[in-house]
Specification:
- The complex is a heterodimer of chains A (305) and B (638).
- Chain A is an alpha/beta fold.
- Chain A folds into 2 domains: 187 residues, HUPs (Rossmann fold); 83 residues, no CATH class.
- Chain A is built from 8 helices and 10 strands.
- In chain A, the strands form 2 sheets. A 6-stranded mixed β-sheet of chain A has the order 3-2-1-4-6-5. Chain A has a 4-stranded antiparallel beta barrel with strand order 7-8-10-9.
- In chain A, helix 1 packs across helix 2 and helix 6 runs antiparallel to helix 7.
- The radius of gyration of chain A is 19 Å and the shape is globular.
- The N terminus of chain A is likely disordered.
- Chain B is of the alpha/beta class and 638 residues long.
- A 7-stranded antiparallel β-sheet of chain B has the order 7-15-11-12-14-9-8, with no helix packed on it. Chain B has a 6-stranded mixed β-sheet with strand order 2-3-1-4-5-6, with helices on both faces.
- In chain B, helix 12 packs across helix 18.
- The chains are: A alpha/beta (305), B alpha/beta (638).
- At the A-B interface, helix 1, helix 2, helix 6, strand 10 and helix 7 of A face helix 1, strand 1, helix 3, helix 5 and strand 2 of B.
């Protein structure tokens, strides 16, 4: 039972401790853990917490990035710099068949593209590495089906999630037992909210990619969403020219599928103030969720993170 | 998408003020429980809506989804906000625990929305295990139901101390004070023995918003608190920090030869640099020299903090050890009494071996005594042989080796455990410890000078256990008999423990139910072990239909060589042979619980030897097996 306030730990401190405990449980209980590193703000918090959990030891497992080849260039630069600065083992995987077939968000549609370049790529990487635990940065406040997921979430040998057959999770006792071939997805940020993430980044001085800060960026508009044209591969309409706008991103992914918001919030305090006043939920900027009702739940049953 | 802008220059100061406010803000974790359709999801949806946490895009999709549904004045079916899974939306019920987050100016809240449907009661216990307070919802039209009692009992069992009785849908009984007072009186009478520290009843309408944020104009007769203001202010202070210090070691932190630290979370009390500590199990003492975190060393760590402790000397400490202060040591025993909530379709069977996880300790354990089952509706206690899904029992648990623990009332985190199935790895049950049993500590093994090695050498053989499993009529006893004859003719001392024969004597008190079969195998495993200790080659010929018990037999054998022989003869073949006419009787329904017909046979996944009874004749099978048994005995192949 956690109770914070004057007599105990602050809200953020108790969330931090809970996450650290989860990280250590993974390191102690699994043979081959891996941490998903998506370069976004949640991943930055995850990385920070992992460093805290094992200090003065180094993070005792590799970080895995599924590279669709369509990420923002700034994300890739940031990823490589973080790996160098913090000295963690970085693994990068791209679905080779998808790459060979030139699967892209324009010709294949967002849902097939995501399936091949993200879900299948993830499955390939997890199978190839023989990982028995994969740590992710998902939070329960993000989306309705996430709200019901366990912190230690069991996956069968096909990486599928069975929401009706979840192990009960009581107190801080986590059942980490697996049969051969099965694996666990672990979510140390389960009890954090988006606001917690931002206030923690601020109070701990955690570095995040500049894409979160408002800058003039070249954008075009697609079905009401602002898309940043990050390189020459973006398919413009005949005669269309990207225009410079002050925008930032609330969530990061593949640039042709990630909506920007108009904003002047160029530093952390402004972002947090803007967040408090904001009236739209953060996943709205992600085109993949709105494909169909229950779409996240469906993706997860198929093995999506 | 709307553009939002803030004046940047003042942002930092405003944020600092705001952050300071956040730090003072407490956190309340609560759960909502009640019966199906009492309106839990609607209530949480209402709380989210009223605390302005529903965002524009969510609101738009919600209004669309709310058509053709019961809605409040806002045109929204609030339950849609929280009923997350597609299956639940289709069935219209909540089937799992969902966690929701909201905050007001005064507090942050994490809400566990737990299911009311009977078969999912286990999820309620899950939600309760991390909650400071519970809202028990009652439909004003229905009053106190079986589910209300069941959930309140589980709250009490899990130790939730603060309860709000929300009498919901009060609008549907015309805001009638008599209805409310009758329900409150009935509930208080039921709950008086449940040990709640606070209990307040509030008449509400989650759909209409009555008595949620502010006093309802429809109920001038009600003078108590409103729901949200009450949740914002109730004092649920825990005294974890004042309790005896407990530090379960989670992970040994060893980056290089110069640093050895013990990482974990202080589960109770506090610790300072310079404190003397003890390892609970070995009682080895040491002194804390550093409390390490990435943010720098600390002088003190309190309950809830995740830190790394460094000691002044080399002490053998590994994951699962608990560090404590001398004079405040926990129980250290291999037996305790506990109350157990069963959470799986597979029933709890005394004698079966499970894995028990308590803190970072993981040990094989079994229920040695099921004292009684508590009827969660009447709180009456009655005798029981097994526990079914959602039942609560008072049990004695024995662990294979001693563990450190406290009673749940003294320390929730070191007094609670889960039981895990050793084959499926499912979480089967959750328990809270009442007290340790000293008995176990006084019972130690007497050691004698003549041991197995001496006795085995006298016989010139290596004791081993050859364990046959297979259906009735598969050929186990025939092959066992041939093996024993061959061994005897080679001058070996062997003995057959046969299922039918043992049931005439040692196990004549046992029937054929699952729990009796478990005990049957446990006893014969112990006998086989004793005979092996006496220097014999023991051949066990039992149907032994369950994987769990065959695993137990192997564990009881300990360091004695144990060979699992699966006589894999198809059911049709066994049934066609039917040497004792038992299959015919079972088919006619004259024998209950007959393996293969009316009781399951769990084939071994990895037997040491498989004999194919339909393809080989008994002599061939005996030859094949004898070669192995002889090889292990002598170290030579024949």
């Amino acid at each position: 039972m956690t109770n914070s306030g004057p007599r105990g730990l602050s809200h953020l401190k108790s969330l931090e401790s809970e996450s650290i405990e989860i990280f250590r449980e993974v390191a102690a209980s699994f043979e081959r853990p891996v941490m998903m590193y998506s370069i976004g703000k949640d991943s930055s918090v995850l990385l920070h917490l992992a460093r805290k959990a094992f200090y003065p030891s180094r993070i005792p497992f590799p970080l895995l990035h599924i590279d669709t080849t369509w990420k923002f260039r700034e994300m890739i630069a940031f990823r490589d710099r973080m790996a160098k600065e913090h000295g963690f083992e970085l693994l990068v995987h791209t679905n080779p068949e998808g790459l060979a077939a030139n699967v892209n968000p324009f010709d294949h549609g967002s849902s097939r593209y995501t399936d091949i370049m993200k879900t299948q790529a993830l499955r390939q990487a997890l199978n190839a590495g023989g990982y028995d635990a994969a740590i992710g940065g998902a939070r329960r406040d993000e989306e309705k089906s996430r709200a019901k997921e366990r912190i230690f979430s069991h996956r069968n040998a096909q990486h599928a999630w069975d929401p009706k057959n979840q192990r009960p999770e009581l107190w801080r006792i986590f059942n980490t037992r697996l049969a051969p071939g099965e694996s666990m997805r672990v979510f140390p940020l389960s009890n954090w909210t988006e606001l917690d993430i931002w206030t923690y980044i601020y109070s701990e001085g955690i570095e995040i990619t500049p894409l979160y800060f408002a800058r003039p960026r070249p954008v075009v508009e697609r079905s009401g969403t602002l898309i940043m044209v990050d390189d020459e591969r973006y398919r413009l309409e005949p005669g269309e020219k990207p225009r410079e706008e002050m925008v930032r991103f609330r969530t990061l992914g593949c640039y042709p599928l990630t909506g920007a918001i108009r904003s002047d919030a160029a530093d952390l305090p402004s972002i947090i103030m803007e967040m408090q006043a904001s009236r739209t939920s953060e996943r709205e900027g992600r085109l993949i969720d709105s494909d169909q009702a229950g779409s996240m739940e469906k993706k997860k049953q198929e093995g999506y993170f | 998408m709307a553009s939002v802008s803030m004046t940047a220059p003042t942002a930092e100061t405003a944020l600092d003020l705001w952050l300071a406010e956040q730090t003072d803000k407490g956190l309340l974790r609560f759960l909502t429980c009640g019966s199906v359709d009492d309106g839990k999801s609607t209530l949480i949806g209402r709380l989210l809506y009223d605390s302005q946490l529903i965002l524009d895009d969510q609101l738009a999709s919600l209004r669309k989804e709310s058509r053709n549904r019961t809605t409040g004045d806002e045109g929204i079916d609030f339950s849609l906000l929280v009923d997350g899974l597609t299956a639940e939306r289709e069935q219209g019920i909540t089937i799992d625990v969902a966690y929701r987050f909201f905050s007001t100016d005064k507090r942050k809240f994490i809400v566990a929305d737990t299911p009311g449907h009977e078969q999912y009661t286990r999820n309620m216990a899950t939600g309760a295990s991390n909650a400071d307070l519970a809202i028990v919802l009652i439909d004003a039209r229905k009053g106190v139901l079986t589910q209300t009692r069941r959930h309140s009992f589980i709250l009490s069992l899990i130790g939730v101390k603060h309860v709000v009785l929300a009498v919901n849908k009060i609008d549907l009984v015309g805001y009638d004070a008599t209805v409310f007072h009758a329900i409150e009186a009935e509930y208080r009478a039921f709950a008086k023995d449940l040990g709640f520290e606070s209990l307040v009843a509030i008449p509400v309408s989650a759909l209409r918003g009555d008595n949620i944020l502010a006093a309802s104009e429809h109920m001038p007769w009600y003078h108590g608190p409103q729901l949200v203001p009450y949740l914002e202010t109730i004092e649920v202070g825990s005294d974890r920090i004042e309790r005896p210090f407990r530090f379960p070691v989670q992970w040994v932190n060893r980056p290089n030869l110069d640093f050895r630290g013990f990482s974990g979370t202080v589960s109770a009390g506090s610790v300072k640099v310079g404190d003397d500590i003890l390892v609970a199990a070995s009682r080895k003492p040491a002194t804390i020299t550093r409390i390490v975190t990435m943010d720098g060393d600390q002088q003190r760590a309190i309950a809830g903090e995740a830190v790394t402790l460094v000691l002044d000397r080399e002490v053998d400490i590994s994951r699962g050890d608990v560090l404590v202060h001398p004079g405040e040591t926990p129980d250290y025993s291999n037996q305790f009494q506990a109350r157990l909530v069963w959470m799986n379709d597979e029933q709890a069977i005394p004698g079966r071996s499970y894995l028990l996880k308590l803190g970072a300790q993981l040990v094989p354990a079994s229920i040695t005594d099921l004292k009684f089952r508590t009827n969660v509706n009447t709180l009456e206690e009655s005798a029981a042989k097994t526990l079914e899904l959602n039942e609560v029992g008072t049990v004695t648990i024995a662990t294979d080796k001693p563990i450190a623990f406290d009673s749940y009332g003294d320390n929730a985190l070191s007094g609670s455990f889960i039981l895990i199935d050793r084959i499926s790895n499912a979480t089967l049950g959750a328990g809270v410890i009442d007290f340790g049993l000293r008995r176990a500590q006084n019972l130690s093994y007497q050691s004698f000078d003549v041991n197995r090695k001496v006795r085995a050498e006298m016989k010139g053989q290596t004791p081993q256990i050859v364990w046959f499993t297979g259906l009735s009529g598969s050929g186990k006893s025939t092959v066992a008999n041939l093996i024993e004859k061959r061994l005897t003719s080679e001058g070996r001392h062997a003995y057959i423990l046969d299922g039918d024969n043992v049931r005439h004597g040692l196990n004549k008190d046992l029937g054929f139910t699952d729990e009796a079969r478990v005990e049957n195998i446990r006893r014969v495993s112990e006998v086989a072990r004793l005979m092996a200790d006496a220097g014999l080659i023991v051949i066990v010929s039992f149907i032994s239909p369950f994987r769990n018990e065959r695993r137990l037999a192997r564990e009881i054998a300990g360091d004695v060589k144990f060979t699992e022989v699966f006589v894999n003869t198809p059911l049709e073949v066994c049934e066609a042979r039917d040497p004792k006419g038992l299959y015919a009787k079972a088919r006619r329904g004259e024998i209950e619980n007959f393996t293969g017909i009316s009781s399951p046979y769990e084939a071994p996944e990895k037997p040491d030897i498989v004999l194919h009874g339909a393809l080989q004749d008994p002599l061939q099978m005996a030859d094949e097996l004898f070669a192995k048994v002889f090889e292990w005995d002598t170290g030579y192949s024949i």
